[in-house]
Design brief:
- The structure is a homodimer.
- With about 280 residues, chain A is α/β, with parallel strands linked by helices.
- Chain A has one domain: TIM Barrel (Alpha-Beta Barrel), CATH 3.20.20.
- The first copy, chain A, contains twelve helices and eight strands.
- In chain A, helix 10 links the parallel strand 7 and strand 8.
- Chain A starts with 5 loop residues before the first helix and ends with a helix.
- Chains A and B meet through helix 3, helix 4, helix 5, helix 7 and helix 8 of A and helix 3, helix 4, helix 5, helix 7 and helix 8 of B.
């Protein structure tokens, strides 16, 4: 039993050291872009086959996979089962599994989500989950309580990678800080992990300073425009404390099935080079 | 095709007038609290049987049902299918279906969620969905685009009912407004619907003024402590513009199966009485 996120952080960091990699592979199986040979199968079956092949090909190049729940829910119950099987397969290959579901609700309902995604006797059994902190601490605590005893983690959205994230997140509070900085302070108080888009290097610097303990999950690399250098402010000075996600740029890299591994290796090397020169 | 939420609003309002009711029944089937006779079934089967019986008993007393996705996802793929069948049955009984899933993501992923829950050719086919606006407009637009052409609605969280909602939502911006008021302004700009907890009557008054067009979904009545009077500030002066959710206080009212109908009628009458005296 653990009352902090330290065991999750240590496990992820150890995996980064062992593999010399900071790469998280986003498993966002947009059906139209799946290899033609797989699109002969039923959608949920095609997704499972695609993800299993990706996981097998990438298990020693990446430290974690981050399936995006939306692309599974799109296929109803069969898709939800495809997500479960994806998590199961990734875990069996020693990967950290981060379900990107951005769940959020009031306390008693958050307990149900937490059990669904993070409990060892729940249906999903993921290592970690992304959540949205707009509801405040009593909506986050149930996730932490479900995750921590089993070495799991909870990633709270701080500054998201999308172009209109500033509409609320960059608003200035009367304290002089922005909304996302207030969220970063809450993340530090809750002692959990954070999501900060790679597309916002300046904001990342401020978020990193406010959350010294947190591991930061960095989306936005590649298709969304962030370079390895853009992601650097999310790391600590010693090169720890962050992992970087890429979905489309890896999983749909041509040609199938060798493209994804090559793309993941290239990303791993670019991040390592940038970290060495920082 | 409609480019605003007016057709959704009109449909919900007409149903309120026809039934002289403002009641939304929260279908949150906490398994431990299901009637003993149903707990002999598999959990997902028990949930479907419970919800169908509730919907049949309550269809003329309430205007909408609001299944909370967490209590279905808790049972994995079978639970997701139970949610789909619940929505299907409620629609067949003429009820507006609001899936309370608080989804949120960046634009291209929000499209997938929107299709999953709101598209006529998606798996869920709900009339409306709750979403979290922390990511800003490009995370909301895809939901509106999926909902509007079919008379559907999108409810954005403005001020949530839970006790720690103020940790972020009540923070004051440099403009003098709070974070939830900034969100209310965004909701008005996006021309969508809103969620405002019945537990915060003062904040509701301000939110109502900032979102003159929105229909407000009011959770927090009953078990969470809000009275009919507490919910009033969410209504317009003419008594339109809001519907009030109650889950536990209705669906687990004893004895089964007559308790829920009696509880829903009592709530309907209490709301109508409060509205007449305001």
């Amino acid at each position: 039993m653990s009352d902090s996120n330290s065991s999750f952080r240590e496990r992820l960091e150890r995996s980064c050291q062992d593999k010399q990699s900071r790469v998280v592979v986003g498993l966002d199986p947009r059906y139209d872009q799946l290899p033609e040979e797989l699109r002969r199968l039923q959608p949920a079956e095609a997704i499972i086959a695609f993800n299993r092949a990706l996981i097998d090909a990438l298990a020693d190049v990446c430290v974690a996979v981050k399936p995006q729940a939306a692309f599974y829910e799109l296929w109803g119950a069969a898709g939800f089962e495809a997500l479960r099987l994806t998590v199961e397969h990734a875990r069996s290959r020693g990967l950290v599994t981060i379900v990107d579901a951005k769940r959020n609700d009031i306390g008693s309902t958050a307990e149900a989500y937490a059990h669904a995604f993070l409990a060892p006797d729940g249906p999903m059994k993921a290592d970690a989950l992304t959540v949205n902190g707009y509801l405040g601490g009593d909506g986050i605590q149930p996730f932490l309580e479900a995750a921590r005893p089993h070495g799991g983690g909870v990633f709270v959205l701080v500054k998201t990678s999308n172009s209109s994230s500033g509409e609320l997140q960059d608003r200035t509070l009367s304290s002089g800080e922005t909304v996302f900085e207030a969220m970063a302070r809450l993340v530090d108080r809750w002692d959990c992990e954070a999501v900060v888009g790679g597309t916002w290097p300046e904001q990342a610097q401020r978020a990193r300073a406010l959350m010294p303990r947190a591991t930061i999950l960095v989306p936005g690399y590649g298709a969304q425009g962030a370079s390895a250098e853009d992601c650097l402010p999310n790391f600590r000075n010693d090169g720890t404390g962050a992992v970087v996600n890429n979905a489309r740029g890896i999983i749909f890299a041509q040609p199938w099935p060798d493209g994804p591994r090559r793309a993941a290796e290239t990303m791993r090397d670019e991040l390592n080079r940038a970290l060495q020169h920082s």
